[in-house]
Amino acid sequence: MTATPDLGTAQLASSDLLRSTFRRHAAGVAVITARGASGPVGFTATSLTSVSADPPLVSFGIGAGASSWPAVAEADHVGVHILGEHQSELAATFARSGADRFGAPTVWREGPEGVPVLDDVLAWLVCRIVGRVPAGDHRIVLAEVVLGDPSGAGRPLLYHQGRFNGLRD
Fold this sequence. Notes:
Blueprint: H1 15-23, E1 27-28, E2 30-36, E3 39-45, E4 49-53, E5 56-63, H2 69-74, E6 77-82, H3 88-95, E7 108-110, E8 116-118, E9 123-135, E10 138-149, E11 157-160, E12 163-166
Antiparallel strand pairs: 1-11, 2-3, 2-6, 4-5, 5-10, 6-9, 7-8, 9-10, 11-12
Keywords: Oxidoreductase
GO molecular function: FMN binding; riboflavin reductase (NADPH) activity
Organism: Streptomyces argyrophylli
């Protein structure tokens, strides 16, 4: 059965329309990390995208006003971490403004190129930033994969309707 769109309820473009629409779009959850001038920085991202297989490129969005943006704007490399469904608290910590993101209980170590690498994730990558593209109030960061490890166990964490969720069978 197909539902016919109700064109009578259409809304003009706005940030609220975009947010409301994308709350209905389930997205994987990643944490992006970088080495900053005064220590590690990181944030939760649901905008991670595979861009190219050859060369291996990814992209993600970051708000130009985000606390992590100054470090990402200057960094040569970033860490990309795919979170498992057991890591909703970690995702919330990295999404919360003003949180001590790298304090306990977050477990991490300095990885290749000085990038903070989080423990117990489904997969992680270290990527070399190759471009930063202005896009409204955000920046789209393009990064080439240098190395990583996809061998973590578990199922992915998803973000849907403003909440972190696991997959359901």
